[in-house]
Amino acid sequence: MYVYDEFDRAFLGERVDDFRDQVTRRLSGELNEEEFKPLRLMNGVYLQLHAYMLRVCIPYGTLASNQLRALASVARRYDKGYGHFTTRQNIQFNWIKLSELPDAMAELAAVGIHGIQTSGNCIRNTTTDPWAGATPEEIEDPRLYAEVIRQWSTNHPEFTFLPRKFKIAITAAKHDRAAIRVHDIGLRLHRRGDETGFEVIVGGGLGRTPFVGKTIRDFLPKEDLLSYLEAILRVYNSGGRRDNIYKARIKIQVHEVGTEEFSRRVDEEWAQIREGALRLDEAAFDAIRDRFVNPAFEALDDAPAALAEALKNPDFARWHANSVGPHKVPGHAIVTISLKPVGKPPGDATADQMDGVADLADTFAYGEIRVAHEQNLTLPHVRQKDLPELWRRLDALGLATPNVGLISDIIACPGLDYCSLANTRSIPLAQRLTERFADPERIADIGRMHINISGCINACGHHHVGHIGILGVEKKEQEFYQVTLGGKGNLKTRLGELIGPAVSEEEVVDVIERIVDTYLDLRESPKETFIAAVQRLGLDPFKERAYAAR
Amino acid sequence: MTSPLQQKLKITGPTAVTANRLADGVVVWLTAAHGWSTHIGEAAVATTSEAALALLNAAHADENHAVGAYAARVAVEDGRASPANLRERIRVDGPTIAFDAAA
Amino acid sequence: MPLVKNGAVVPDPFTVVEAEGPLPEGAVTVPLARLLAEGADLAGRNSPLGVAVPNTADVRELAPHLPHLSLVVLDFPKFRDGRAYSQARLLRERLGFTGELRARGNVLRDQVLFMVRCGFDAFEIEKADDIPAFAKALATYSIFYQPTGDGRPTVASLRAGHA
Question: Whole domain around residue C131: which residue ranges?
Fold first, then answer.
């Protein structure tokens, strides 16, 4: 993981002082709310239904155990003892007092974390694969480039008052675990001969006008990364719409001017700055690469005897089957920790659980934790021989639900229980679905399935790319839910299609179950996944059954 | 927002004005004395658009104590306001999910 | 509005003139459209010339006129509207403008450091009382990650220096 140096630490200190001064000026009335709002947003502070919410940045989802403990401490001291992990690999605290925020931020800054640019119309936290640096399928650790982007975008003087927020995601693996096609910019690291570079995808996004991003450059040499990003951002800052907040994302600009014209403008600008100060040489990459401390992996063999023995326990085997992924180093594994226990809010963790996971990371996983886009945690480097003990200890923390990648591994936004924008609740629906689909054998039989729930059209629950997407809509002050099928959030991103009229809060869990039963009845074999069956069969059979009982 | 004083406001029933307290974000309701109370039952209730607008303007003028003010429809019983919809019920009673720290 | 340069209020010698009508004696600021239409005539005057540029304009249009311009005024109609930051960098870093680059409109202390980094060196602020706060805002940060044309050392260059 990247370890802050004296400059990074000095910057964070200055930022905390700056924000403390801004909060003081706001509380004294020197700054009015309109002036203060963008400043607090730039530090991740929202005003939600019940309180201020602090969104803390977890750069590209990587945490050290002491940082996770600091988050636990903030949850305890300044909040109500828990936090909520988000789809953008960040964490949110729901009950923060404005007057205490500077102190909470100072505590976080002491371990090198912050809320900078987790909100506001600026360049947000660059997200990446939670398996970065661990998965055998990546060509290189993408976090190096995410860190390069973090530094370039931090307090960028030109791009802090953009038309709208701006999100960048990057992946280096065959499987996209970072949803790069639904970001303002998606970067896919790949090789051409001996050269490393990026496919650059622009203008993806969900929200009320979902678009799958368009590739505007197949291969951008890595030394040109920042000049090219700066060119895109300049074209966007100068020409993105500012007359309508719903049309201000770059996806609308790309759509309205056309991909070709947009890319021509970027190229024209890029030609002017490509050879300039932003060009990255090997020394520049090395300087940042040197700040990454990677675990000193033990020399171990794959499939140790202890593991084979433990796999005879069906409960362990079930958890192992969907929580453990292959690691690039023999004798190691990647473990996903489900934050989706049956009946609990998706993505939430208590302070005690955070401390518990930090301890487990120290004991079993070289002290490193990741936050995954699916609102789960990941231990990227676990010795295979430790998996049985890790599982027992996770179970004791209530964190060994064997549902990773399955139907109850639901992505849900905070919804109307917390969010001032929401129309309907999301979390209680997720809870009811996990209760309906609580039987581990049944959910294993249903197989790979992503349900995504958004409590309003802003789509923070990414319902468009859920295999089953659920969008809450309000009708006459009652909660209704629209259901879409067939969405996918990977490199072959597809937006789901609406199956019909919205269904009531009472009906929706039954409707989902009937859709799932339809799949179980119609699949060619247990090998045919839900999404494959939807693609083969189309919506009609699902539609028919979903509404049959009405 | 320091919105310019609003000129028009259409209400559909008894209406109170609510906001979040500046320093800690706690949900507050505008009282008849143009102060802020954490109890919805102490909220001033307007039954005409003019009266609701007057409350809202008073709230906006007091942004150094409470922010994000808006007019919310309320139910009234024995002269005291209570939430009339899910959103306001959640703001008054808290999330509808168990959020005890014990997982 | 007080004009601030180098941390002090200075007199503003420029008279703002409209799109049409006779020009007064002395330094004037004309709207962009007038500069583009009457550039040659305006350049022939024997007084400093300024231009006020809307934030929707492509500043590259100014290129042929820059040798005759002492002042470019860029506009922040709302502080949230950041287009003039890009215009400023293009003027300084691409087009090599060395005259006064002035921020007008909704200019707040919490933005002034960003403006300076993009090349602004003059600010029309609401109250002269704010000057100490502006000076303080400029000193808020000593660490800068990205290169701009302002010449401040970046973290990368400092790291290289330390290595």
Answer: 3-162
Token pair of A53 as six digits: 């919410």
DSSP H helices, A121-246, are: 143-153, 225-239
Q: Which of A15, A22, A161 to mutate to test the interface with C (most CBs of C within 10 A)?
A: A161
Query: Three-state DSSP class for A369?
Result: strand
Q: Does A479 lie at the interface with B, CB-CB under 8 angstroms?
A: yes
- Which residues in C lie closer than 8 A to residue A112 (C-beta atoms)? none
Strand-pairing partners, residue A325, are: A334
Nearest to A278 among C79, C144, C147 (CB): C147
Q: Are strands C28-31 and C15-16 parallel, antiparallel or unpaired?
A: parallel
Which residue type occupies A137?
E
Alpha-carbon gap: A337 to the closest alpha carbon of chain B (Å): 15
Domain count, chain C: 1
B6: its two tokens: 């609003």
Task: Give the CA diameter of chain B.
Answer: 49
φ and ψ at residue A428, rounded to 5 degrees: -60, -35
Buried b (16+ CB within 10 A) or exposed e, A46-60: bbbbbbbbbbbbbbb
What is the spatial distance between Cα A442 and Cα A206, in angstroms, rounded to a whole number? Answer: 31
**Number of neighbouring beta carbons within 10 Å of residue A470:** 29
CB contact under 8 A, A242 and C148: no
CATH code where residue C88 lies: 3.20.20.70
- Tell me the C-alpha distance between B45 and B13, whole Å: 10
The residue type found at A344 is K
Contact check, Cβ <8 Å, A26/B103: no
Q: Which domains does chain A have, with CATH numbers?
A: 6-109 (3.90.480.20), 142-289 (3.30.413.10), 305-396 (3.90.480.20), 411-546 (3.30.413.10)
Contact B96 A428 (CB under 8 A): yes
Q: In angstroms, what is the C-alpha Rg of chain C?
A: 17
Cα B78 to Cα B56: distance, rounded to the nearest angstrom:
23
Q: Which helix (H) or strand (E) holds A498?
A: strand A497-498
Classify the C-alpha dihedral A407-A81-A359-A1 as positive or negative.
positive
- For tokens 């820059």, the residue is C66
Residue C63 has a CB neighbour count (10 Å cut-off) of 14
Count of beta carbons in the 10 Å neighbourhood of residue A263: 21
Three-state DSSP state, A370:
strand
ipTM over 0.90 threshold: yes
Q: Name the residue with tokens 């550039």.
A: C39
Tokens representing A247?
């049309």
Per-residue tens of pLDDT for chain C, all 163 residues: 899 998 889 999 999 998 888 889 999 999 999 999 998 888 888 899 999 999 999 999 999 999 999 999 999 999 999 999 999 999 999 999 999 999 999 999 899 999 999 999 999 988 777 888 888 899 999 999 999 999 999 999 998 885 4
